[in-house]
């Protein structure tokens, strides 16, 4: 089991008000998501910063920045297509899946899955993380 990383190595996030709440929220949801399929969540801000992560072997800071960009693009794309409000951005790769969900205010959650997880199962399981994170942030504030 990985450990939750809060703050950024340079200390940039230590002063951010969401850092402690995000780290606590990831601690609370770590055992509640389906770990057979989900390999780790990451919390990002809409401005691309990283308050907390429960991932292994990825560049968390780069992923946080790309998460913010992907939600921005999803919002524009869905809006332009007249499909209402964007609820997330999902990507499928040869080595796994990734989904970015807006949670509350400036908070995003990024969820990773194993390559053998079907997109249907990933969609169901990945939606646990934002709901659990929303609850944890709401009760933690």
UniProtKB/TrEMBL annotation:
It comes from the Bacteria. SMART domains: Robl_LC7 (SM00960). Residues 26-112 form the Roadblock/LAMTOR2 domain. Signal peptide: none annotated. Pfam families: Robl_LC7 (PF03259). InterPro entries: Roadblock/LAMTOR2_dom. This is Roadblock/LC7 domain-containing protein.
């Amino acid at each position: 089991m990985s450990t939750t990383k809060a703050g950024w190595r340079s200390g940039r996030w230590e002063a951010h008000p969401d850092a402690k709440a995000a780290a606590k929220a990831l601690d609370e949801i770590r055992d509640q998501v389906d770990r057979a399929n989900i390999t780790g969540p990451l919390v990002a801000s809409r401005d691309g910063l990283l308050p907390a992560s429960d991932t292994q072997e990825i560049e968390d800071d780069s992923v946080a920045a790309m998460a913010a960009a992907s939600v921005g693009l999803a919002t524009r794309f869905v809006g332009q297509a007249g499909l209402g409000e964007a609820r997330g951005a999902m990507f499928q790769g040869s080595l796994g899946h990734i989904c970015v969900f807006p949670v509350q205010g400036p908070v995003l959650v990024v969820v990773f899955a194993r390559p053998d997880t079907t997109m249907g199962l990933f969609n169901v399981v990945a939606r646990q993380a934002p709901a659990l994170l929303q609850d944890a942030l709401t009760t933690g504030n």
